[in-house]
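note to self — DONT lose this again. spent like an hour looking for the file last time. sequence + predicted structure for the chain T wanted, 61 res
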Amino acid sequence: MPVKIKLSNNDTLIVNNDTKIRAWKNGTSDPFYPTQIFNGTINDEQLSTSDERIGIQGLVR
């Protein structure tokens, strides 16, 4: 199921089942070199929930 994300600057992203998603977080010891925490799609086991929006929300926060 496609997920529509509206950003604070009013841009809209559509995430489909095959859309590649990559997420990083800042390191605590060196904030200039972020660590990749996810590389996959909505269907990836790390994001698999009954509602795709919840999986993506975990990456955005």
